Amino acid sequence: MARTRLIDPKGWIFLAALAAICVIVPLLNLGFPPGSALHLPTYLVSLFGKYLAFALLALALDLVWGFCGILSLGHGAFFALGGYAMGMYLMRQIGSRGVYGNPILPDFMVFLNYKDLPWYWLGFDHFAFAALMVLAVPGLLGFVFGWLAFRSRVTGVYLSIITQALTYALMLAFFRNDMGLGGNNGLTDFKDLLGFNVQAQGFRVSIFVATGVALAIGYLIARFMTVSAYGKILIAVRDAESRTRFLGYRPEHFKTLAFTISAMMAGVAGALYVPQVGIINPGEFAPTNSIEAVIWVAVGGRGTLVGAALGAVVVNYAKTVLTGVMPDAWLFALGALFVVVTLFLPRGIVGTAMEKFGGRRAAATLPPEPEIPPQLAEEGQGS
Amino acid sequence: RAEETIKVGILHSLSGTMAISETTLKDVMLMLIAEQNAKGGVLGKKLEPVVVDPASNWPLFAEKARELISKDKVAAVFGCWTSVSRKSVLPVFKELDNVLFYPVQYEGEESERNVFYTGAAPNQQAIPAVDYLMSKDGGEAKRWVLEGTDYVYPRTTNKILEAYLKSKGVASEDIMINYTPFGFSDWQTEVSKIKAFGSAGKKTAVVSTINGDANVPFYKELGNQGIKATDIPVMAFSVGEEELAGIDAKPLVGHQAAWNYFESIKTPENEAFIKQWQAYRKNPKAVTNDPMEAHYIGFNMWVKAVEKAGSTDPEKVIAALPGIEQKNLTGGTAKMLPNHHITKPVFIGEIEASGQFDVVNKTEGLIPGEAWSKQLEGSKDLEADWVTLKCGNYNTKTKKCGGA
Amino acid sequence: MLSVDGIDLYYGAAQALRGVSLAADPGKVTTVLGRNGVGKTSLLRAIVGQQPVRKGVIRLDGREIQGLAPYDRARAGIAFVPQGREIFPLLTVKENLETGFAPLKRRDRHVPGEIYDLFPVLKDMLHRRGGDLSGGQQQQLAIGRALVTRPKLLVLDEPTEGIQPSIIKDIGRAILYLRGKGEMAIVLVEQYFEWARDLCDTYAVMDRGQVVLSGSRSEMVEADVLKWMSV
Amino acid sequence: MTRFLALLLLLIAAPACAQAPSPYEKFASDNYSDIDAGVAGLAASGDPRAGDILAALSDGRLFYRPADKTLFIKQGPALSDARTGAPAPADDGLKLVRANTRIRRAIEAAQGQLNLASPNAGRRREAADAVFKARDVAALPALDAALARETDASVKRTLTEARAAVLLVKPGTSEGDRLSAIPPIQARGDGDAMGALRGLSADPSEAVRAAAAKGIAAIETKLALLNAAQNVWYGVSLGSVLLLAAIGLAITFGVMGVINMAHGEMVMLGAYTTFLVQELIRAKAPGLFGWSLAISIPCAFVVAGAVGVLIERFIIRFLYGRPLETLLATFGVSLALQQTVRSIFGPTNREVGAPAFMSGAFDLFGLSVTLGRMWIVAFSIAVFFGLMFVLRKTSFGLKTRAVTQNRRMAAAMGIRTPYVDAMTFGLGSGIAGIAGVALSQIDNVSPNLGQSYIIDSFLVVVFGGVGSLWGTLVAALTLGVANKLAEPYFGAVLAKIGMLVFIILFIQKRPRGLFALKGRAVES
Amino acid sequence: MSMAETLPPVTQQGLELGPANRKKTTGALLYLDDLKVTFDGYRALRGLSLSLDRNEMRAIIGPNGAGKTTMMDCVTGKTRPDTGTALFDGTHDLLKLDEPAIADLGIGRKFQKPTVFESHTVADNILLALKGPRAGVASLFGWRNRVEAESIDEILTVVGLLPHRMRPAADLSHGQKQWLEIGMLLAQDPKLLLVDEPVAGMTDAETEATAILLRTIAKDHAVVVVEHDMAFVRALGCRVTCLHEGAVLAEGSIDSVSADPRVVEVYLGR
Lengths: 383, 404, 231, 524, 270
Ligand SMILES: Nc1ncnc2c1ncn2[C@@H]1O[C@H](COP(=O)(O)OP(=O)(O)OP(=O)(O)O)[C@@H](O)[C@H]1O
Ligand SMILES: Nc1ncnc2c1ncn2[C@@H]1O[C@H](COP(=O)(O)OP(=O)(O)OP(=O)(O)O)[C@@H](O)[C@H]1O
Ligand SMILES: [Mg+2]
Ligand SMILES: [Mg+2]
Hints:
The structure holds 5 protein chains of 5 kinds.
Chain B: E1 5-11, H1 19-38, E2 46-52, H2 58-71, E3 76-79, H3 83-96, E4 100-102, E5 115-117, H4 126-134, E6 143-149, H5 152-167, E7 175-180, H6 188-197, E8 204-209, H7 215-224, E9 234-236, H8 241-244, E10 256-259, H9 268-281, H10 290-309, H11 314-320, E11 325-327, E12 333-335, E13 343-344, E14 347-351, E15 357-362, E16 367-368, E17 382-385, E18 391-395, E19 400-401
Parallel strand pairs in B: 1-2, 1-3, 3-4, 4-5, 6-7, 6-8, 8-9, 9-10
Antiparallel strand pairs in B: 10-14, 11-12, 13-16, 14-15, 17-18, 18-19
Helix pairs in contact in B: 1-10, 2-3, 10-11
Chain D: H1 2-19, H2 24-27, H3 32-45, H4 50-59, E1 62-65, E2 70-75, E3 78-81, E4 87-88, E5 95-96, H5 101-115, H6 121-134, H7 140-149, H8 153-169, H9 175-188, H10 191-198, H11 206-255, H12 263-284, H13 292-314, H14 323-345, E6 361-364, E7 367-370, H15 371-393, H16 395-405, H17 407-412, H18 417-439, H19 451-464, H20 469-509, H21 520-523
Antiparallel strand pairs in D: 1-2, 1-5, 2-3, 3-4, 6-7
Helix pairs in contact in D: 3-5, 4-5, 5-6, 6-8, 7-8, 8-9, 9-10, 9-11, 10-11, 11-15, 11-18, 11-19, 11-20, 12-13, 12-14, 12-18, 13-18, 15-16, 16-18, 19-20
Chain E: H1 22-25, E1 30-39, E2 42-52, E3 57-61, H2 68-76, E4 83-88, E5 92-93, H3 99-105, E6 107-110, H4 122-129, H5 136-141, H6 149-158, H7 174-188, E7 192-196, H8 204-218, E8 222-226, H9 230-236, E9 239-244, E10 247-252, H10 254-259, H11 261-268
Parallel strand pairs in E: 3-8, 3-9, 6-7, 7-8
Antiparallel strand pairs in E: 1-2, 1-4, 4-5, 9-10
Helix pairs in contact in E: 4-7, 6-7, 8-9
């Protein structure tokens, strides 16, 4: 059997580009003094770092949506949970440098009269524990949620909407001040991570590179999963879930595994995002954030992995530029971008490019979606 | 080549949930800058506004703040509305050492070197408002509903108020505290709860820290359930002329708001300001409100400070600002205090059918803003003074500056 | 009535029909025979307008219709019984039949009784959802639905697929009945050779997207046809 | 400080009150305590002009001349002497007698006392009610007098209740009187009655305390029942709002399969249409204001429907067969629509007024039913059944369902699919627009209006079962009622979270919603 | 799916396979007894009983809507009957297992309407069907990643799809999809094959080929074939069961069944 290679040409281009960025950006930032024409301002480093974190989120989403047909409208939840885990660690690192000088309690707890640290904050003063939680919390939620939903054969829009309900419920919960996680203000005013000052230039460059590396690893994991027989089964599940059952596969296992791994990837993305933007708050759980992430994937090209990452960068870059250049009309431009992409690049940027130049359709290409309403669209199962 | 200008950043959401409140603040800043330029600018240079849209997204606030300071090299930033947006940009201002003027009433518990708070601290709004409600003129309220949106500002304010009320002898069972989510729109149950609470035979008043969009449905429901101000007055801290423009005010006549500015206050300065604003917006019905005045004060203070320092260098401007005075639009003179808050008069206004406020009470003189609340356990020993102590949270007990 | 002249049809880059011609006349049955994947369905799709043709002309009553949208062709008198039935699954049997009213004038909007005579089972199941019927029942419904539009040209794609023998006979009788009325031209794609042979007036055999053999039934040499139909 | 000042003023005012019997001078003041005293004095004076003067004060039409403290009433441009009612010449030097909430309260109490003698029975009952609520001891003589005169049974009962309530607070009422005052209050049985009885908890007499406790218990049971019923009503009304918001989506999403993120913006367009219609009516034909909503309904339908048709023709139609991508395109559309409205109408809320028939509330066996909500419930049900009729009973509905179930086959049956598609999407959008008319009555009319409903709408449609209109109805009402029943116990936030979690779990049980379509039809 | 209330027993026609006969039949590979299925009040199966020996081939005929496909749905776990017994290999209670577990026991199925993985190539469709471990981890690291092309091509040759091996299955014509599904069934290599209308849409020559293929398979597998093509059924040369209204109407050799007047009446027609 002609096996698909782990890294195909577009993968090489992607990894090479990523490697180049991870070298050039630090070089331009650290290697040239501010004021030099070649100097890259530190704020841009963090901005790019943020894009890369989003790219990892998009990649995670593409793994489940593009290859498994699970349109998650709640992936922001995993991202935010990872972010909170990191935020809690960063909060504990502040120690007695908070405004009230309390060595244990973060500031917001002091002025809301907390006496002790809530139990779920314990352990977060250790980086290793926090890092574990970055994976474990989103992973566990993804596993439990996925296992329940997939076992009950919740599919299609039903699944999409309950993922949205999930993130919405979490948003409301985290908004509550009684949750002990800072309520609406969230966690902010971070000082240092592993002893490095999060504001320092060196730190910003390092975490940028770390995000780049995480993205590359995420890509390789996703790629490994999708080129193996496992990936083929995922696609089979996506196209005709119940048919796979009659072949003896248990789609719920395959989906849950993919969903859990994807959730963990999203969690890592969130954890890398937080120190770079300096705040994590319940707004990250907002359903529109998750929908936006889906849109990055669609813009870049669903089911292409590279495209998802590219889409995240493109859309967010457009957002950064447009909110600055045309603050009153950027929504028009962004809205138009989405419409134009759907109409003229039906497979997204990368998907369309692959179709143009790539010749044969790969197995991951999407089937023509059935022309039937959503209640029918989930399973194309014959009698 | 264009001549050299001084750039001023404007960091207010123009889209998303907060656009409803913040967009006018952007406009008022543009107006003030244009006016200053007409007067010849500052230090002989013209001011150039840099507007960005952080889109009601808190991390984006931080990103945009960074962009304004690092890329556009602004001399100062006027912006933010919600506390979380301020908290989000704080580290950026500290790191890049720039100046933020924050124009909205807030929960206090903060004093930062780089931030100047031109809105009210709790002692400049909440406490006087409650004092009024307890007074004979205010209706001698004995039972209290503290109704708020579930976030930091109402939580803190209510905490302060609860402590304050208890210190005034109000029993626990006469205080009901209630929180609802952001953008809450179905107020039937909450309002009927208030109604029930208010039917216990004691004069009841509601102190509302309900935020933003949720106010309109709240007031509509009050009107629908026939709760008149004479039954249970509602004292709001976040409802101004702007918000009322979206509601039919007739059923709300007599409900109250506490602010440091009302459009209806007749002073020559205010009349001129309103005229200028309506001309600028080309809309004879455009209304003014409290945070707009805060920006007016903040901006003029900044101009004076720059001129005093002879430079826009944030370092020097920060040093120059405390002590700067600027006339309020409503009479009296605001003064920037060493704790980076300002002195303010406090007014209680009652809603009129026209959607304006009738000022029914005014504090004697101006009240200095307190960064740290005297009512809260953790903060009553803290003091902010950036002039002599050079510290925002000096602990008078331990004689140490915390957090530094 | 129907004449198809030298049409080419493509799916993307792959060509499925090459210069196919076909004719059908009122009161006559034209069958199209051929192995799997030779392009029979593609030909019918071209006629009813579900797939555009790249070359060639399709005429109905002398009028060129290859540029018309499928619904306009239906309004011009073409009815289609597709392979795989394509019943509207959530509509009841009655409603499925009523979808055929669209091209009709208001006064014609009723289900002709002869349809229930041909397929009595439909009458029993009027209020069940079309999608719930068994395969064979759906096939009968699909034919009935097509007849509701009182077509000039009836296009059937493998109508016997999955049908019990007695009903195949019924369908055969129905086709003969319709042919006998002399108003309707019928194009029939079929695999079931003997049955098709007995019904048809003219025939065409396809292979690899081309018509390789055609003529009237009287001239048909069975062995030649069967040769094209074996593997 | 302020309190102290007020007290001081009171002390100064009190003797003044005793000296000068004429209450009129009291009004000529900037001090609310003086004005308050004036109101009380006027009410007690029995002056026949008191009613007019108090009304003028409450409306901001009462003026005084600082020089001689004469009072004037302004009626339109005309000025009259308040004391005599004689017309007076215009005067520039007049100052307004200001009223604040304290004064308005006093006015209400005074008017209440005056109204006790009103010839209108309804007025009298209201007045008696007001006295009951205020429990003002000063009103006792007026009450007694009124009770002696009263002939109407129901007014008499209210008066008795009021008198009982006043007796309970009056110092020095004998134990026997206190005891006999309890039963009428208990019979009244509402929150205010409970408040009155609660006041007895510190009563010196054991018997009175016991009787009051019994009364309170009785009222509590009754109120608990009422409360439950009230909450159900609130739930129904919340449900009807959810239904309205979701029902258009039930078509564009449920029937057509378009993941329509711009649905909320259609609702918003409907609300803004209402605003425009009202502005136009206010400017051109104020007399029609009562009809403004009725006029807005077709307008909103047409506006939102037309926008829907445009969206379908220019965007959606290229996406049939790619349902998931409609999410992307309609999200883009929704951003653009929001910004368009923001640019045209500004970011702030717009005021949409309520016509008279929708304002206020009425009492239904102790339940308080607000008229606005009642109309919305009725309206949503009407819209629902109207839509049901269109989809189930008309040929358009049949075509719609055929097209959405199998577009290709529908075309082969001669159905003009592009037309049906455009009209169906237009219908869904138009209905969303109509929802906007109703929502403008209870929510902000701002560019963000739609955003706040979109998630709930999707939840309702999915919870009910995509494609099932009945499902949408039942889901909306279920979620509304469940939410409102939970709210008093858990608070608004937890109730909402609970509801979301419930939906998530419920979908595990019924993966295709409440009214799942079953059988082979769905799978084939 | 709701299998509503238990229905009153229906008088069974044809062979009685009541509890009394059970002893004899538990040695059977597939044993169905008194299956009843109701869909929204419609009784699709009304006490169906059937028994199939090892390596037996059985043809099932019966009018449209008789319940043939529903019977297969019950055996493969797609539909849960209201009542009845379904045993596989004498020991496995099929009614307690779900679809993958049943497939795992060795029951494979071809659907009436061909159902293949449309965006996979023809070859990958076969690859996924190949017998072997089905677990997720196994597919991530297991042998399925290293299957040689030859073993797949062998199967594709049998079903005549070798030239199409790299085409997406979506591009196949209707009949080609039928063949692909048969190929997948072969690859799965189950103990019991349930084949629903395999020759629908095939030419006569292909029909013959299919009959031969099935007979070869039946040498060491049990096969249940549902068909309406009587010539094909005859060519299978096996025992025939005729279903009607959810129960067995007649069973026996092709000649005896097709001579049965009731079968002629409801099924074959005159
Ligand atoms: N949607 C499609 N996309 C690409 N190729 C297609 C498509 N449909 C059919 N084909 C190809 O076109 C050719 C003709 O197919 P068609 O369906 O017309 O065959 P047919 O004669 O009807 O076969 P059958 O008897 O199996 O129904 C086949 O090779 C098929 O693979
Ligand atoms: N999921 C379902 N929901 C409702 N009715 C169903 C369902 N499945 C089958 N039926 C009904 O049960 C009956 C038996 O159907 P089944 O498909 O088993 O028939 P069949 O014998 O396979 O017929 P055919 O030869 O036409 O394929 C039919 O009348 C059908 O309408
Ligand atoms: Mg075909
Ligand atoms: Mg069948």
